[in-house]
């Protein structure tokens, strides 16, 4: 009860990691300043920006912090930002997200009530970019989170909040994720493994202002999301019947492969033409609600393109898991050690995120690798 009372009366700080974010930062900060639950402090971590990011932040009254190096990644940035505040609740917001007025209060509520130690929201269905790849990526994210379980097994740092003492006890995000990746997923798994509860708040929304290109989307999905997440799953972590690793999504991936496999079979033996027809029908039927959502939110162009992009997504996401689970990725890493992801290197401890109270006992727990 005492801890709940302390949290309820405490301050809320927002930490924004940023590198060359001038194009979206003004909208991000303006939205935070219009929040119904006004942040008590907004801290921007500058990762060595070469544009007007720092000037925009300071003009808006933000506190700017850095650690003297460039492009270390948002994991390091969030850790440094969190260490710069004494607030009991820390909200992380990406520099390309404009939060809805109610979002911060809705994220804070389950933490204050003692129902969770962390919470996160999702993108809305109104992304700024109308490019097909951007529409698909943002609407897919919105759909997955809006249909996720409220008792989450992971965390999302694009729009998420966490108790400072819990963040400190877990030593923050793993800085070996040197680029935007699944550092938030990995932190959330650690929190749940240690007994903490995380709440997915589906009505805590933010508008995504990023303009995804197709190549950028595929590179991010495969290299920064699917492969690292598959590595976690191979290590016995990150498995759940929820979000984009649910059994339903796994079945969708099987059907996606049936489409091309049966198509090849029909080319060799035309009498087998009912097989690809059935596979396509099954795949569309399984994903019909999501495809209908794409048409409603993005229009016919986004809907038709989204069907193809989603099919590709299920193909490369599942192939990434096979790549890791089969051990092929380990062989590739040994052949090309210079390209091995830093987060896979287990050498050396992560730096501890200081707690606001030096006398506060913190737990030091190294995640299983």
Question: Any overview of this molecule?
Answer:
Helices cover 49% and strands 13% of the residues. The chain is α/β, with parallel strands linked by helices. It has 13 helices and 9 strands. Helix 2 packs parallel to helix 3 and helix 9 crosses helix 12 (288-325). Mean pLDDT is 87; it is low at 334-352 and 354-369. Strands 1, 2, 3, 4, 5, 6, 7, 8 and 9 form a 9-stranded mixed beta sheet that branches. The protein has helices at 2-8, 22-33, 53-59, 74-83, 103-112, 132-146, 164-169, 183-193, 214-234, 247-268, 274-286, 288-325, 328-335, and strands at 12-18, 41-46, 63-65, 89-93, 97-99, 118-123, 151-152, 159-163, 198-208.
How many individual β-strands? 9
CA-atom Rg in angstroms:
21 Å
Terminal Cα span: 35 Å
Helix content: 40-55%
Largest sheet: 9 strands, mixed
Low-confidence stretches: 334-352, 354-369
Give the class from helix and strand content and strand pairing.
alpha/beta
Fraction in beta strands? 5-15%
Describe the global form: globular
Order of helices and strands: HEHEHEHEEHEHEEHHEHHHHH
Mean pLDDT: 87
What multimeric state do the chains show? single chain
Q: Tally the helices: what do you get? A: 13
Output the keywords.
13 helices, 9-stranded mixed β-sheet, alpha/beta, 369 residues, 49% helix, globular
Short description:
This protein is of the alpha/beta class and 369 residues long. It is built from 13 helices and 9 strands.
Annotate the secondary structure layout.
Layout: H1 2-8, E1 12-18, H2 22-33, E2 41-46, H3 53-59, E3 63-65, H4 74-83, E4 89-93, E5 97-99, H5 103-112, E6 118-123, H6 132-146, E7 151-152, E8 159-163, H7 164-169, H8 183-193, E9 198-208, H9 214-234, H10 247-268, H11 274-286, H12 288-325, H13 328-335
Parallel strand pairs: 1-2, 1-4, 2-3, 6-9
Antiparallel strand pairs: 4-8, 5-9, 6-8, 7-9
Helix pairs in contact: 2-3, 6-12, 9-12, 10-11, 10-12, 11-12
């Amino acid at each position: 009860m005492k801890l709940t009372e302390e949290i309820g009366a405490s301050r809320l700080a927002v930490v924004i990691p940023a590198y060359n974010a001038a194009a979206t930062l003004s909208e991000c900060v303006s939205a935070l300043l219009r929040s119904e639950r006004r942040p008590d402090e907004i801290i921007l971590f500058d990762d060595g920006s070469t544009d007007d990011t720092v000037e925009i932040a300071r003009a808006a009254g933000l506190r700017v912090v850095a650690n003297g190096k460039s492009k270390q990644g948002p994991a390091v940035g969030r850790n440094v930002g969190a260490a710069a505040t004494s607030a009991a609740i820390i909200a992380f917001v990406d520099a390309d997200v404009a939060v809805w007025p109610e979002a911060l209060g809705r994220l804070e509520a389950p933490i204050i009530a003692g129902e969770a130690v962390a919470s996160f929201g999702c993108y809305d269905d109104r992304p700024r970019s109308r490019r097909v790849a951007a529409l698909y990526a943002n609407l897919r994210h919105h759909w997955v989170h809006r249909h996720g379980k409220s008792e989450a097994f992971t965390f999302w740092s694009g729009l998420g909040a966490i108790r400072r003492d819990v963040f400190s006890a877990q030593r923050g995000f793993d800085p070996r994720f040197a680029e935007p990746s699944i550092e938030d997923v990995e932190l959330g798994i650690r929190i749940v493994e240690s007994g903490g509860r995380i709440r997915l708040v589906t009505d805590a929304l933010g508008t995504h202002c990023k303009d995804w290109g197709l190549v950028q989307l595929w590179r991010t999905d495969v290299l920064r999301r699917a492969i690292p997440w598959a590595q976690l799953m191979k290590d016995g972590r990150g498995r759940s019947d929820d979000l984009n690793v649910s059994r339903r999504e796994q079945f969708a991936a099987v059907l996606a492969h049936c489409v091309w496999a049966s198509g090849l079979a029909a080319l060799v033996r035309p009498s087998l033409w009912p097989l690809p027809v059935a596979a396509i029908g099954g795949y569309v039927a399984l994903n019909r609600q999501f495809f209908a959502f794409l048409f409603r939110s993005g229009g016919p162009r986004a809907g038709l393109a989204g069907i193809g992009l989603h099919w590709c997504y299920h193909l490369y996401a599942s192939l990434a898991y096979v790549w890791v689970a089969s051990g092929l990725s380990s062989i590739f890493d040994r052949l090309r050690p210079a390209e091995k992801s830093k987060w896979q290197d287990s050498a050396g401890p992560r730096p501890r995120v200081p707690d606001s109270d030096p006398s506060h006992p913190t737990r030091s727990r190294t995640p299983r690798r």
